[in-house]
Amino acid sequence: ATEVVNGVPVISDLTSTVATVTITIKDVNDEPPRFNRREYSVEIPESLPVGTPLPNLDMVVTDTDVGLNSVFTLRLSDEMGAFIVEPATATGSASVTLRLNSSLDYEDPNQRKFILEVIAEELHTSPRLSSKASVTVSLTDVNDNAPQFAEEPYSATLAEAALPGTRVGAIRATDRDTGRFGTEGIVYELSGNGAELFRVDNRSGVITVAPCDTPGLAPCLDYETRKDYFLQYKATDDDGAGQNTVVSLQISLSDSNDNPPVFHTAVYKASIDEDAVKFEPELQVQARDVDISSDIRYSIIEPPTHPFWIDPINGKISVRPDTGGVTPPEDSNKIFLTVL
C-alpha cells in the first residue's frame, strides 16, 4: 500500500508497506484416470505358465488430478476368470500388468481368443470418474498333443501270393493340435522285422505290399516260411519332427496253393505173389504238400490196364478183388505203375 501526496504516490519506507497474499487453487475432480491407449492386443502360447505376465502389453493409467482425486482402482471384466489385473489400486499413475490366472488350451475353441475390459475408476470421489480399455488376447497353438489312434493293436490278413502294390490296409491317427502340429502334419512309418516287405504312404497311412521278384516265395512273402509279421506302426506330427505314438500291427498271411505235392520217395518197390490179393507188407505211397490248404488225392495213371486199386485218400495200393490175383506181363515179372 502507498500514500498519495498531492495526487502523486510516494513510495518510501515511511509511505509504503508490503503484504504477502497466498492464493491456494483447490483441485476440482475434472479428470478421470486415462489409459495410454484405448485398445491393446497381445499374443501368447497356450503353454504359458499360470502367473506369467502378458508380454508386451505396455499399459499405463494416469490420473492428472491430485490428492485423493488421483486415487483409482483397477478391475478386470473377464467372465472366465482366466486373467487378473495388477495393481488393484494406484495413485496418480501406474503401469498395469495382466497375469494368467488359469491354464489355457488352444484345442478348446472357446479359449482361442479373449476380449477383456480393464476398468480404471476413482476411489474417493463423487462421482467416481472412470475409463475403460479393451485387451484382445490371442492364443497360439503349441504342439502339446501326440497323435492318437482309434484302436490298438491293429491286425490285417493278406494272401501270401499278393502282388506288389496290393493294399494291406490303411491306418490313420488324429491329433488335437492344428496345422502341422495336428492331423495334417502326421507322418507314418512302419518298422520291425520284415517291415521291408511292406510299404506305407507316409501321409495317407495306406499300407501295401512292397515290390518283390518272387511273390509267394521266399524271400518275398511266403506262408511256408513265415506266417505272421509283428510290426510297429508310428505316427509323428510336425511333419515327422514332433510328438509320436507307436502301435503294434500284426499282418498275417493266408496260405495259397502255390506248392505241388512231393512224394516221400520217387520210386516205391514191392513184391507180391501172382495169386495173392494183397501186399505183405502193405504198399502205400505218400506225398506231402507244404501248403496247408492242399487236399491230396492219389490215382494210378499208367499203365492203362492193371490189376491194382489205390485208395485216393491214403495212397494204399491193393489188388482189385475182381482180378483174382496178379498176372505178370508175358515178357517180364514186373509191373510199373505211375501214381499221380
UniProtKB/TrEMBL annotation:
GO annotation, biological process: homophilic cell adhesion via plasma membrane adhesion molecules
UniProt domain Cadherin: residue ranges: 36-149, 150-263
InterPro entries noted in UniProt: Cadherin-like_dom (IPR002126), Cadherin-like_sf (IPR015919), Cadherin_CS (IPR020894)
Cellular location(s): Cell membrane
Gene3D superfamilies noted in UniProt: Cadherins
Keyword Transmembrane annotated: yes
Membrane topology: Single-pass type I membrane protein
Sorted UniProt keywords: Calcium, Cell adhesion, Cell membrane, Membrane, Repeat, Signal, Transmembrane, Transmembrane helix
Pfam families, sorted: Cadherin (PF00028)
Molecular function terms, GO-annotated: calcium ion binding
UniProt name for this protein: SFRICE_034126
Organism: Spodoptera frugiperda
